[in-house]
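Lab notebook, design round three. We kept the backbone fixed and only want residue identities now. Task for the bench partner: fill in a sequence for the structure below.
Input C-alpha cells:
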C-alpha cells in the first residue's frame, strides 16, 4: 500500500513523523512524503525533518508564501500532478493548514481516498483560516482520525458516519513521548539565560493577532508590562515582519525581561515549555504540548479547538486585549503549586499509540 503524505508547515512535520516511523516497521506500507513548500526557512521546516527523523520528501513543490487563494491553488496544482505521477492508494493529510486543505481537495477530486489526521477539532470560529481548512478537509475525507472523544463527537454531529471515524488519539503526544529525553538533553535554558520554573514562553503568529497593528500592539504592550518574570519569545517570521512594519520591534527590544529569539527547533521548544512557569500562545499545538508537560497555558484567543484543555483547567482563554492578558496572568502567577495540580489531570489525547492505530486503520481500508 502506498500512502502519499502531504506536509508543508512546521506543525505538520511533528504530527506526521510518528506515523511514518510506525509505517517504516511494516513491510505492507510505504510512505511517500510530499512537501508543498509552504514553509521553507531552515528553522520552519528542515530542522524539524532532521530532529524528528522524517525521511526527505520525494517531491518538494516549493510553493512558498502568498495569499490564501494563490498558495492553496498552487499547492493543489502541484499535488494533483504528483498524485497522477505517484498513483498512491491514499493521500494522508495532517492538521489544519493550507497544505492540508490543498492535499485533500486535489485528492478527492481525483477520486483518491483522503485520510485526515487530527480530524474533528473545532473552534467554531470561521474567521480563522484553520477552522475553514479543518471543516472542508474533514468533509473531503473517507477516513478521519480523531485525537479525542470530543473531536469524534463533533464529526458525528456534522453527519459523518461512525464507520469513517477512528478515535486514534493524538500523534503529537506520540512524538512528545519519544522526544522528551532529547529535549531534556538540550541546554536551551542555559543558552537563553533562564532558570527552571522562573520564566514564561510566548509565541504568537495567528493572523487575527498579528496582522492588525492595534491587536499586535495590545499583546506586545501586555508582555512589556508583565515584568514579573523573564519572557522568552521565539518569533515566527510572519510576526517578525509585522513587528518591523509597525515599529513595535524597537519597543519590545527595549524591554529587558523579554528575550526575542529566532524560531527554535522541536527539542528546544519542548525543553522551554516543560521548564516554564507558564506559556502564552495562540498556537494550537502548543496548547496541547503545554498540557502534556504540565505547564499552565494562557491562550491569546477567544476560542480554541482544544476545549478539553480548557475544561480541565489547564488552559485559560484570555483573548488579546492588554488589560485582560495582564490581569489574568497576574492572577495565575499568584497561584501556588500549579505544576503539581496539572500533573494529576487525565489525558484525553490517548495513550501515545495514535500512530500505531492510524497505520493499522490505513491498512484496513486498502
Ligand atoms: C501556517 C498555518 C498555521 C500554522 C502555522 C505554523 C495556514 C493557513 N496557516 O501559518 O495554521 O499554525 O503555519 O507555523 O496554513 N514565512 C517565512 N518563512 C517560512 C514560512 C513563512 O518567512 O518558512 C513568512 C512569510 O512572510 C509568509 C508568512 O510567514 O508570508 C506566513 O506564512 P504562511 O505559510 O502563509 O502561514 P503561517 O502564518 O506560517
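Proposed sequence:
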Amino acid at each position: 500500500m502506498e500512502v502519499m503524505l502531504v506536509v508543508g508547515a512546521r506543525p505538520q512535520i511533528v504530527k506526521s513523523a510518528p506515523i511514518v516511523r510506525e509505517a517504516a516497521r511494516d513491510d505492507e506500507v510505504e510512505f511517500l512524503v510530499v512537501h508543498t513548500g509552504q514553509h521553507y526557512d531552515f528553522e520552519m521546516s528542515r530542522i524539524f525533518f532532521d530532529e524528528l527523523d522524517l525521511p526527505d520528501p520525494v517531491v518538494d513543490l516549493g510553493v512558498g508564501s502568498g495569499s490564501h487563494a494563490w498558495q492553496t491553488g498552487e499547492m493543489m496544482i502541484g499535488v494533483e500532478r504528483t498524485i497522477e505521477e505517484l498513483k498512491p492508494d491514499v493521500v494522508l493529510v495532517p492538521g489544519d493548514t493550507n497544505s492540508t486543505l490543498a492535499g485533500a481537495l486535489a485528492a478527492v477530486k481525483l477520486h483518491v481516498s483522503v485520510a485526515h489526521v487530527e480530524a474533528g477539532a473545532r473552534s467554531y470560529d470561521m474567521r480563522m483560516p484553520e477552522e475553514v481548512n479543518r471543516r472542508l478537509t474533514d468533509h473531503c475525507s473517507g477516513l478521519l482520525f480523531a485525537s479525542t472523544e470530543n473531536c469524534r463527537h463533533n464529526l458525528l454531529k456534522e453527519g459523518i458516519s461512525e464507520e469513517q471515524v477512528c478515535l486514534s488519539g493524538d500523534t503529537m503526544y506520540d512524538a512528545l513521548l519519544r522526544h522528551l529525553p532529547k529535549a531534556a538533553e538540550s541546554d536551551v535554558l542555559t543558552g537563553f539565560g533562564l532558570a527552571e520554573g522562573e520564566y514564561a514562553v510566548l509565541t504568537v503568529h495567528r493572523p487575527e493577532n498579528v496582522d492588525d497593528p492595534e491587536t499586535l500592539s495590545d499583546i506586545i504592550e501586555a508582555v512589556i508590562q508583565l515584568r514579573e518574570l523573564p519572557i522568552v519569545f521565539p518569533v515566527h517570521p510572519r510576526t517578525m515582519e509585522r513587528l518591523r512594519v509597525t515599529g513595535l520591534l524597537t519597543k519590545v527590544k527595549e524591554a529587558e525581561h523579554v528575550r526575542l529569539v529566532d524560531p527554535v527547533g522541536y527539542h528546544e521548544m519542548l525543553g522551554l515549555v516543560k521548564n516554564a512557569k507558564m506559556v502564552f500562545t495562540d498556537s494550537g499545538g502548543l496548547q496541547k504540548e503545554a498540557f502534556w508537560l504540565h505547564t499552565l497555558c494562557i491562550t491569546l484567543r477567544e476560542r480554541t479547538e482544544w476545549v478539553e484543555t480548557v475544561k480541565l483547567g489547564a488552559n485559560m482563554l484570555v483573548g488579546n486585549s492588554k488589560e485582560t492578558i495582564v490581569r489574568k496572568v497576574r492572577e495565575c502567577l499568584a497561584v501556588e503549586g500549579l505544576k503539581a495540580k496539572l500533573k494529576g489531570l487525565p489525558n484525553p489525547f490517548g495513550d501515545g499509540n495514535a500512530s500505531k492505530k492510524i497505520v493499522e486503520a490505513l491498512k484496513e481500508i486498502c
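Keep this in mind before ordering anything: The first strand starts at residue 2 and ends at 7.
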